[in-house]
Specification:
Blueprint: E1 7-12, H1 15-23, E2 32-34, E3 41-42, H2 44-47, H3 57-63, E4 68-70, H4 74-91, E5 95-99, E6 102-106, H5 111-114, H6 117-132, E7 136-141, H7 144-154, E8 159-161, H8 167-171, H9 184-192, H10 198-202, H11 206-213, H12 215-225, E9 241-247, H13 255-275, E10 278-289, E11 294-305, H14 308-321, H15 323-329, E12 331-339, E13 342-343, H16 356-372, E14 394-395
Parallel strand pairs: 2-4, 7-8
Antiparallel strand pairs: 1-6, 1-7, 2-3, 5-6, 9-12, 9-14, 10-11, 10-12, 10-13
Helix pairs in contact: 4-6, 11-12, 13-14
Active site: 102
Organism: Orlajensenia flava
Family: Belongs to the DNA polymerase type-Y family.
Length: 398
């Protein structure tokens, strides 16, 4: 026997839309779309009509005219995520978070006190439903890859256990799109070669897969197709970057408007850095223009920092440099990532020359927002602005 199926992949179903339906009973059973200009999430009722994440709002409304469109509420989603992750960590200390709405859990050591992995998964789903009010799908398998595929296949609101002796039976008939790491471009390339199932991919030699798909991608997906995935659940996994982005729709935006949105994004990210005792060295600005072309601009500072004023100044400089392109082509999305993350404890002490007042201000603002909520205090640049501009920014899907 090649080990036991002890890895759980738990993934909340249509997370943003499900939170909206949970909090507004009149939305339950109805098609719900989160986000207007671009679809950020869709309920299963809307997905049944063909609505998909990242689809344009007009196309989504054409497909599902009866859909209820709601603005995103990131504070509500973050609170729900914290509640769910508290259940994860109460289930097992071995939790590897992947995003705001999914995680791996290793439960192999719980058999004597909590039963089989399937028993643990059943209780986990019941607790998330009863305590948080959300549906969650869980895959159980010997490896992280298979557990993730199993949870996807079990959706919505399902549980699927892939025992070691039926791994090939489960995986090989699936379309290559189910593979972790196979996106639209790789899938199209494989289809062009007549390879449509995982089994057909597994039949290739490793060298052939690497030649067709590139060394890294080919080696990765070929190993998974042959059921090789030695990665353990990693409870020490830390992100190499954090980021947020905001879809802007198709309407024209002035640079003053973009500066307001950029300030909101950087404010939130800098606070996340400080909450996690992290610092960063590189600020990355991500733009999507009106013609849907994308651009990335970055700047690395000399010393790692978590100061809002420093990070905002860098981001504003990057945005100013992109102004001519924005004026000519329009803009539909703006995002910021903070990269080269490090720990505050690892920093060399700085001379308290320029940043003391900014540090004190950041500390005070963080404390006020912790006590009275994220919208309790705002920068002067936000005053008198359209409330729609102050909607929470959306985290990057990593």
């Amino acid at each position: 026997m090649r080990g036991e199926a002890t890895v759980l992949h738990a993934d909340l179903d249509a997370f943003y839309a499900s939170v909206e339906q949970r909090d507004a009973p009149e939305l339950r059973g109805r098609p719900v779309i989160v986000g207007g200009g671009v679809v950020l999430a869709a309920s299963y009722e809307a997905k049944a009509r063909g609505v998909r994440t990242a689809m344009g709002g007009r196309q989504a409304r054409d497909l599902c005219p009866e859909a209820v469109i709601v603005p995103p509420r990131m504070d509500a989603y973050s609170a729900a995520s914290r509640d769910v992750f508290a259940i994860f960590r109460d289930t097992t200390p071995l939790v590897e978070g992947l995003s705001i709405d999914e995680a791996f859990l290793e439960v192999g050591g719980l058999r004597k006190i909590a039963g089989s992995p399937e028993d643990v998964a059943v209780r986990l789903r019941q607790r998330v439903r009863s305590e948080v009010g959300l549906a969650i799908s869980v895959g159980v398998a010997r490896t992280k890859f298979l557990a993730k595929v199993a949870s996807a296949v079990s959706k919505p609101d399902g549980l699927l256990v892939v025992e070691p002796d039926r791994e090939q039976e489960f995986l090989l008939p699936l379309p290559v799109e189910r593979m972790w790491g196979v996106g639209a471009v790789t899938a199209e390339k494989l289809h062009g070669l007549g390879i449509r199932t995982v089994g057909e991919l597994a039949e290739l030699e490793a060298a052939t897969a690497e030649r067709l798909l590139g060394k890294a991608t080919g080696a990765h997906v070929h190993a998974l197709a042959r059921l090789r995935d030695p990665r353990p659940v990693d409870t020490t996994r830390r992100r190499g970057s954090i980021g947020s982005q905001r879809a802007l729709g198709r309407q024209p935006r002035t640079m003053a408007e973009l500066d307001v949105i950029l300030t909101q994004i950087v404010d939130r990210l800098a606070r996340r850095l400080r909450d996690g005792d992290r610092v960063c060295r590189t600020v990355v600005l991500r733009l999507r223009f009106g013609d849907f072309a994308k651009a990335t601009r970055s700047h690395t500072v000399g010393s790692a920092t978590d100061r809002t004023a420093v990070l905002l100044s860098v981001a504003q400089g990057l945005l100013a440099a992109a102004a001519p392109d924005i004026a000519e082509r329009g803009i539909t999305l703006i995002g910021v990532s903070l990269a080269q993350l490090g720990r505050v404890a690892d920093l060399q002490p700085e001379l308290p020359i320029d940043w003391a007042e900014g540090a004190q201000l950041d500390t005070v603002l963080d404390a006020v927002r912790d006590r009275f909520g994220a919208t309790s205090v705002a920068r002067a640049v936000h005053l008198g602005r359209d409330p729609g501009w102050s909607a929470p920014v959306l985290p990057e899907q990593e």
